Amino acid sequence: MIRHCMDFWLTIKLALGFEFQxxxxxxxxxxxxxxxxxxxxxxxxxxxxxxxxxxxxxxxxYSARYSDDQFEYRHVQLPKNMLKKIPADYFDSSKGTLKLxxxxxxxxxxxxxxxxxxxxxxxxxxxxxxxxx
Length: 133
Description:
Elements: H1 2-31, H2 47-53, E1 61-62, E2 66-67, E3 72-77, H3 80-83, E4 91-92, E5 97-98, H4 103-108, E6 119-122, E7 129-132
Antiparallel strand pairs: 1-3, 2-3, 3-7, 4-5, 6-7
């Protein structure tokens, strides 16, 4: 099922092309997301890597949504053991946490949310908690 979702999102992005990329750049600038903390481009999982993560997908916890005057937020809690199965190039070696993930990357990990969510931070004391807005 994850593979079908990834194929769907990739098809949409390819169809939208340059305009999509320009829109995403504008969104990032408005959301103050530090894109230097991401891979330069989405690093998709290999089939073997995806299979190692499937056992954890049903244990991913999604918080309720909360908001301030500007954004709506939520956090996603990955099972701690799942971090050991995620490929090393998804991690920021200087911090020991996940990098900020592109939508293609967090969806490949099995995180499912509606459109529009951006991974903007990792809770460093608990690196299995990803913050979205």
